[in-house]
Specification:
- The chain is of the alpha+beta class.
- The protein has two domains: 83 residues; 334 residues, Porin (Beta Barrel).
- 23% of the residues lie in helices and 41% in strands.
- Strands 1-2-3-4-5-6-7-8-9-10-11-12-13-14-15-16 form a 16-stranded antiparallel β-barrel.
- The protein is elongated and about 175 Å long.
Length: 453
């Protein structure tokens, strides 16, 4: 079998087509140009559409990038906001902690600070005989505030501010006094150190003189004129228990302190009470030392004694020193409703040479000054009103010129009662009768009300 060439086949087919058909099927040059232009326009339109699509895609990509950037920025802002929230919470927690610490500190300060005080109002109605004058007056004798603070378990502050006779100032009767202002520090469980303005450890009333704690409207004359209650000095002291295991209740108190400065001329020369300086720009040329020993080892019993030595009670006002020695002893017994107090005190002052010291001149006899008293009492429980009533009697004897042979001794009898509607509140009434050797007596009655807190 023979094969026919494709070229020959194509030529044969072309020759077989009629000429008319060939002319009608082929487009003219004009038509071909028109077709080419239409295709060119379509191509340009497609290219334009493609460019627009590409631009839109690019814009979309940019928007996506911007959106992503915004999202990232939002995330960063969220992180910053979260950080700020955390910081705010930390600040709030710190503020709450600070407030709580402040409240705790304030509460702690309040818990470690104590406020107390006492006061007493007196009415005296006394008739004078001889050189003694009548007395008919009412007086807010004392108003006292106490402030204490515990710095820690070992160190504490004690202070006492007093106004006497209601008002003070130039030409007024009253005074503003700081009777105590000292720091106390524990040395051991049974021994303490104190420094500052302190009450002298002597007698019953000098350290414990709140109105509900003693009988009588006025303080007894022995602990007024012989022991110059209230008597305070600046000093450094040690106190504590001597042997708590072997001798329970035996305590000591030793104090090195500033001394008295008695006048050296006039009617009050060398009188002990007039020598109190009250730590007010006080001359300190000559100091003093006081030692007390006290036993309270049995319920209702107190026995104590005090010794004091001062190098010069005039603070170098004279050419020779006038040294002074104080001895005091006291005892108290309480058995149920029955009570008994007794006290003795004595000063011995060196004369310092003829015509100079307390044994000579206008102050003759003041080289020896002494006093004592005894005071029985009985408490009566009552049912028709709240509280307790106590009755007492007291005999007082004292002499600030005991070294002389003249009539200088003074005696006073008191009898009265105390009514305590509350243990820290007291109403008092007593009668006093004097029998002084010089005949200068004041007899009458006294009324009083007092409190402590």
């Amino acid at each position: 079998m023979k094969f026919i060439s494709p070229l020959v086949l194509s030529a044969t087919l072309a020759l077989s087509i009629p000429p008319v058909l060939q002319a009608e099927s082929l487009p003219s040059q004009a038509e071909m140009w028109r077709i080419i232009q239409q295709q060119q326009q379509q191509l340009e339109a497609l290219q334009k559409q493609l460019r627009m699509t590409t631009a839109k895609v690019q814009a979309t990509d940019e928007k996506i990038e911007v959106t992503a950037a915004k999202v990232q920025a939002s995330d960063e802002k969220a992180e910053v906001t979260a950080a700020k929230v955390d910081a705010t919470e930390e600040k709030a927690e710190a503020a709450v902690t600070a407030v709580e610490e402040s409240k705790t500190a304030a509460a702690s300060w309040a818990e470690r600070t104590q406020i107390g005080g006492y006061g007493e109002l007196h009415y005296n109605n006394l008739a004078g005989e001889g050189a003694a004058v009548d007395k008919d007056e009412v007086d807010l004798h004392r108003f006292v505030l106490f402030f204490g603070h515990q710095f820690n378990d070992r160190i504490r502050l004690f202070s006492e501010l007093e106004i006497e006779h209601a008002i003070s100032g130039d030409g007024e009767n009253g005074e503003v006094e700081l009777e105590q202002a000292y720091l106390e520090m524990d040395l051991t469980a049974h021994h303490r150190l104190a420094a500052g303005v302190q009450l002298i450890p002597v007698g019953f009333l000098n350290q414990t003189h709140e109105p509900p704690t003693f009988y009588g409207v006025e303080r007894n004359p022995v602990e007024t004129f012989i022991i110059p209650t209230t008597w305070w000095e600046a000093g450094l002291g040690v106190q504590g228990e001597v042997a708590p295991a072997a001798i329970p209740g035996l305590s000591y108190h030793v104090l090195l302190h500033s001394g008295l400065e008695t006048p050296v001329a006039g009617g009050n020369a060398f009188k002990i009470r007039n020598g109190r300086q009250k730590v007010s720009e006080a001359p300190a040329d000559a100091g003093a030392v006081t030692a007390q020993l006290k036993w309270t080892g049995y319920p209702g019993v107190e026995i104590g004694t005090t010794l004091q030595y001062q190098q010069d009670v005039t603070q170098d006002a004279l050419a020779e020193a006038i040294d002074a020695f104080l001895f005091e002893a006291h005892a108290e017994l309480r058995r149920g409703p029955f009570g008994l107090r007794a006290l003795y005190a004595r000063w011995n002052l060196d004369d310092g040479g003829l015509g100079i010291g307390p044994a000579s001149g206008a102050s003759v006899g003041r080289d020896l000054q002494y006093g004592w008293y005894i005071e029985p009492s009985y408490r009566i429980p009552i049912n028709w009103v709240p509280g307790e009533v106590g009755i007492f009697g007291r005999y007082n004897e004292w002499d600030n010129n005991a070294g002389a042979n003249g009539d200088s001794g003074e005696r006073q009898y008191n009898v009265g009662l105390n009514y305590w509607p509350h243990p820290s509140v007291v109403f008092k009434v007593d009668a006093q009768f004097q029998n002084n050797e010089d005949g200068d007596d004041q007899d009458g009655f006294n009324l009083g009300v007092g409190y402590q807190f």
